Amino acid sequence: MQPFTEKVITIIQNIPAGKVMTYGQIARLAGSPRGARQVVRILHTMSQAYELPWHRVINAKGEIAIKDEQQRNLQLTALEQEGIKLSAQDKVDLSVYRYEPDWNDVDII
């Protein structure tokens, strides 16, 4: 497994319930500021195998990026069950719910 992939998996595993991170934010922390699409790929291919809390990852606008209606509704429900309030447009207020980890306490990078 590539180091970037390992870092992305570890970062996602550490997003606490009730918080979200963006694809780009995860990519930057994992060492590839332009790697947001790679984060999407990793989530798509490895969420089940690594039991990733995939529902806690959203786009930079605070929106759910999933187009499939069933999966989108699953993500909305999972976020709401964790206490994340969404706007009428199904947006997450990143100023309230964004997780900003202090990786000095976590040896991943």
Keywords:
single chain, 109 residues, mainly alpha, two-stranded parallel ribbon, 5 helices, 42% helix, 4% strand
Tell me what you see in this structure.
The chain has 109 residues and is mostly helical. The chain is 42% helix and 4% strand. It contains five helices and two strands. A two-stranded parallel sheet has the order 1-2. The longest helix has 13 residues, at 69-81. It is globular and about 40 Å long. The two termini are 15 Å apart. The mean pLDDT is 91.
Distance separating the two termini: 15 Å
Order of strands across the biggest sheet? 1-2
Radius of gyration: 13 Å
Structure annotation, total helices: 5
Note the main sheet: 2 strands, parallel
The proportion of strand residues reads under 5%
* Cα shape: globular
SSE order, one letter for each helix or strand: HEHHEHH
The chain-level structural class is: mainly alpha
Concise synopsis of the structure shown:
With about 110 residues, the chain is mostly helical. About 40% of the residues lie in helices and about 5% in strands.
Write the layout of secondary structure elements.
Elements: H1 3-13, E1 21-22, H2 23-29, H3 36-46, E2 57-58, H4 69-81, H5 94-97
Parallel strand pairs: 1-2
Helix pairs in contact: 2-3
